[in-house]
Amino acid sequence: MSPALIVFFLLATLSVIGALSLILQKHPIHSALSLIVVMVSLAGLYLLMGAEFVAAVQIIVYGGAIMVLFVFVIMLLNASAEEHTSFSKLAKFGGLPLALALTGLLAAAMIRNGGAVPNSATPDALAKTTDISMMLFSTFVYPFELTSFLILVAIMGALVLAQREKKT
Amino acid sequence: VNAVTTFLAQDGGFWVLTFVKIALLLFIVLTVNAYLTWFERKVVALMQSRVGPHRVGPHGLLQPAADGLKFLFKEDVMPAGVDKFVYLLAPFLALTLALASLAVIPFGPDPLPFKFFGHQIDLWITNPDIGLLVLFSVTALGVYGVALAGWASNSKYPLLGGLRSSAQMISYELSMTMSVVGVLLMANSFSLNDIIQKQSGRTIWGVLPAWNIFSFHGGFPQVVGFLCFFISAIAETNRVPFDLPEAESELVAGFHTEYSSFKFAMFFIAEYTSMITVSSLCAILFFGGWNTPFPTTWTVTHYIPSLILIPFGLWVLFDGLKYETIFGKLILPGLGTAIAGVGALLLAGIWIAPLHDVNEYIQGPFWLLSKIFFFLFFYVWARGTLPRFRYDQLMNIGWKLLLPVSIANVIVTAAFVLFRSAP
Question: Looking at the predicted complex, does its ipTM rise above 0.90?
Answer without folding.
Answer: no
